[in-house]
Amino acid sequence: MKDATQITTLFVDVGGVLLTNGWDHHARRRAAKNFNLPWAEMEERHRLVFETHEEGKLTFEEYLGWVVFYQRRSFTRAQFRRFMFTQSKPYSKMIDLVAQLKIQYGLKIAVVSNESREVNAYRIREFKLDRFVDTFVSSCFVHIRKPDVEIFRLALDIAQAPVQQVVYIENTPMFVQIAEGLGIRSILHTDYKSTCTKLASFGLQNDAGALA
């Protein structure tokens, strides 16, 4: 164990950790192919507005209007929306791991993620993330997004957890470094097994996983 400080709170990213990314460039490329959209043009229009959209300052319908439906299409917004949402898939072992650790150690669980409001709401509902997550510090709710250090400070304030009692699971190296700069012990998530090992080093041994 790295030190004897008891961990009381787990911060966790969603895309790339609990679920696949909600609307990354791979998903957008699939959408462009599926709906026969000009990829480069769609991607450039996305690039211009996605930060504002993820900060909750541009609605889902406005985003679709600027990125896809700025001209007549042969498909509907509802069809495109359904395709977007179905790009999300669960990492079931990671979801079960976090849910189990919450029960086992009485942890507070806070999501710290960059997501648009509608995609975020769908993913919370579809994959029942709210059954074990206590707080969603999502960019669309708090109007700031990673890599802004303020989203981590806000998460600490909301969780009311001393920084030395927090562990953060994140799959983006820069965001790990930013959190560590605040004193938040962080795990760069690459796969289930290595994350379990790192959690155990902080005193969070997954007994259910060890018995499996």
Describe it for me?
The model has no long low-confidence stretch (mean pLDDT 95). The chain has a 5-stranded parallel beta sheet, with helices on both faces. The two termini are 22 Å apart. The chain contains 11 helices and 5 strands. The longest helix has 16 residues, at 39-54. It has 2 domains: 9-20 and 89-211, Rossmann fold; 25-85, DNA polymerase, domain 1, CATH 1.10.150. Helices cover 50% and strands 11% of the residues. By secondary structure, the protein is α/β, with parallel strands linked by helices. The protein is elongated and about 60 Å long. The protein has helices at residues 25-34, 39-54, 60-67, 77-85, 92-105, 117-126, 139-142, 150-159, 173-181, 192-201, 207-211, and strands spanning 9-12, 108-113, 135-138, 166-170, 185-188.
